[in-house]
Amino acid sequence: MEYFKDKKRALRNRTITLGDSEISRLRKKLIKISQPVSISQIENKTIHQNMFEVIDNLPDKFIDLAFVDPPYNLNKNFNLTSFRAMDSEKYAEWLDSWVKKLIHILKPHASIYICGDWKSSGAIFSVAKKYFEIQNRITFEREKGRGAKANWKNCSEDVWFCTLSGNYYFDIEAVKMKRKVIAPYKDETGRPKGWEKTENGKYRITHPSNFWTDLTIPFWSMPENTDHPTQKPEKLVAKIILASSKPGDVVFDPFLGSGTTSVVAKKLGRKYIGIEIDEFYCCLAEKRLEMAEKEKTIQGYSDAVFWERNTLNERVSGNGRKKQIETLDNLFTNKPL
User: Fold this and answer.
1) Quick check: is 204 in a domain?
2) For residue 303, how many C-alpha atoms fall within 13 Å in the half-sphere facing its CB?
3) Which residues form the domain of 92?
4) Residue 180 has what pLDDT?
5) pLDDT at residue 320 above 70?
6) What pLDDT sits at residue 5?
7) Which of the pair, 323 or 147, is modelled with greater confidence?
8) What mean pLDDT do residues 1-7 have?
9) CB 254 within 8 A of CB 69
10) How far is the C-alpha of 245 from the C-alpha of 263, rounded, in Å?
11) Cα-based distances in Å from 267 to 25, 218, 261, 324
12) What percent of the chain is helix, strand and coil (3-state, nearest 5)?
């Protein structure tokens, strides 16, 4: 619990932190499971346990959507726990040991998204195809990180979109994107062809692809940022929840981390259940869930569409550079625009 206490932060750092009194209060909200439970006992809860201790005691067929962000096949410290890289075959065995346990909790029409990187994606595919129908692989750009000197910089990650069957829910209309128009074609009457002109520029509403370049990985000046080393953006999870679940559906995350999946599910009117082994991250999740009571915005998502990276601030800022910088800061600090 002392891991992040002495970390020095910049004056304008917006990272969500926890004090001793908050930890004492928030840990009382966490639950543990030692026997079979009903849905009502775990709905909208954070379970502080190892996933392997919990999964067999969860109800059958109650999850509509699972978002799974397991440790990648890398050496990585997660506060008081750690994961160590292994050969690909051993990593695939580890994946298989818990993926097969998810089957009994998923509804017949459920979707499951599994995150990975270039080292782990092959193992994820080989395991997932044993139990699910693989519908697609999403690749997103991770612009954050240092360059490599003897290799190509690693700046992408994958999310495997799987379903239990060919009968699944998917709402493409809920995840459309708003893009700047580069070639503003017009029809024979001179009217915009597939785009609209606004006072802030020319934009087109488009269907999303499986290659996402509009995400910003959480960093110190963003109000969703935490000290979790592999935190996913709320915007990424929002796309998946909106596309593959309906309001009121149950969203499940067995490696909850700092709570992004539960927080976004709450903001978007879904029920949530998360499992996390580290108590500090569990408490961070609960703090963020409390914050979501008042602040339901998701960075980069507005007017029921997802905006390209760094364009939403331009929509509200006008043409002046000073105003753009001020508005971008407001966007990241939750000040009113």
Assistant:
1) no
2) 7
3) 20-171+209-296
4) 81
5) no
6) 58
7) 147
8) 58
9) no
10) 15
11) 22, 18, 10, 27
12) 30, 25, 45
Q: Is residue 83 part of a domain?
A: yes
CA angle 263, 288, 49 (to 5 degrees): 80
Asked if the structure places residue 249 within a domain, the reply is yes
Tell me the one-letter amino acid at 101: K
The Cα 35–Cα 1 span in angstroms is 27
pTM: 0.88
Q: C-alpha distances in angstroms, 252 versus 9, 237, 245, 316?
A: 33, 12, 11, 35
**Coil, strand or helix at 273:** strand
Please report whether residue 320 resides in a domain: no
C-alpha span between 322 and 318 (Å, rounded): 10
| CB of 217 closer than 8 Å to CB of 300 | no
Rounded Cα–Cα distance for residues 32 and 257 (Å): 16
Short-list 242, 245, 281, CA closest to 260:
281
Q: Domain tally for the chain?
A: 1
Which CATH number covers residue 163? 3.40.50.150
